[in-house]
Amino acid sequence: MLIRVPMGWEIPEREATPEPAFWNRRQILQAAGLLAAGTASAFERNPKYTLDRPITEEWAATGYNNYYEFHPTDKQAVKDMVGKFTTSPWKIEVKGLVNKPQTLDLDDLFKTMQFEERLYRFRCVEAWAMAVPWTGFPMADLIRKLDPKPEAKYIRFVTVSRPAEMPGMKLAPWYPWPYYEGLRMDEAMNPMAMFVTGMYGKKLPKQNGAPFRVIVPWKYGYKNPKSIASIEFTAKQPKTFWNDTAATEYGFYSNVNPKKPHPRWSQAHEKMIPTMALRPTQMYNGYGEWVGGMYKGNEF
Ligand code: MTE
Question: Which residues line ligand 1 (CB under 6 A)?
């Protein structure tokens, strides 16, 4: 009798990604008012990005967060601290080495962008991990519209600062608020880099970075800033919040790397929320095929 041996690239049945439930998502979007606002009128899942594991349950991905502006230590409390935070209307300042400096209004911007859904793995530097359907558009699509000058070698993001709405800022005043991050221009233009506005077919919850965040899935979670207030194009490598806070622990590049331990723990394995089941960490979080070519391998 012939037994069919699965090939290396075949995903075991139990781990296969569920089929996209397009009509379901459409109904959800309608309920969330997204279709009425003219955004994401017919986004579909981009089939290019598949998972090697089940999608994380929505309650877990939206209930276990790092968002220090709301709570600096309790990940499960963040979702209960966001009540006062207002995310609409929302403006993003575009400045620096760019031919079209401007203030973007998100409602207007969304009418001009082509939205899609992608399934991405997500890996926090603390070792917890998840797999999420994000909605948004390639970062490169917006950067091209903004038209950076040739001298622009980096992109810098600063996230919103509203101490009256963000109780964590007062609980942890020693951090260099507001949160700021950056990418090299080729990283930002890489097709994997996304600006994200939704997850699980709905608007991004406040605790996950509403209304507009960065997702770069080959890097540790802290390179994915939330609730972006400004985008700046720079010639010099921008400083970053976690590098300024603990330079020996958090570098600028921060690509997921199982062989490079954090000074205080191993990165060889990751823990899938909510069960915390262990899986081996993959180089570049498994996205080396798309992004490995940008690096020499020793970036920190
Ligand atoms: N962005 C802001 N503004 N503030 C933060 O504290 N935490 C980062 C990143 N973006 C953070 C942030 C870290 S450490 C991680 S792991 C991810 O957000 C967590 O994203 P999630 O809560 O959607 O899983």
Answer: 65-69, 124, 159, 179, 208-209, 221-222, 224-227
Dist. CA 225 → ligand 1 center (Å): 6
Q: How many CA atoms lie within 13 A of 84 on its CB side?
A: 10
Q: Between the CA of residue 185 and those of 70, 143, 261, 281, what are the distances in Å? A: 30, 10, 26, 26
Give the global pTM: 0.90
Residue closest via CA to ligand 1's atom 17 equals 221
What's the CATH number where 136 sits? 3.90.420.10
What pLDDT is stored for residue 297 in this prediction? 83
Q: Would residue 5 count as lying in a domain? A: no
- Mean pLDDT for all residues in the chain: 90
Residue 148 lies in a domain: yes
Range of the domain at 281: 14-294
User: 291 CA distance to ligand 1 centroid (A)?
Assistant: 22
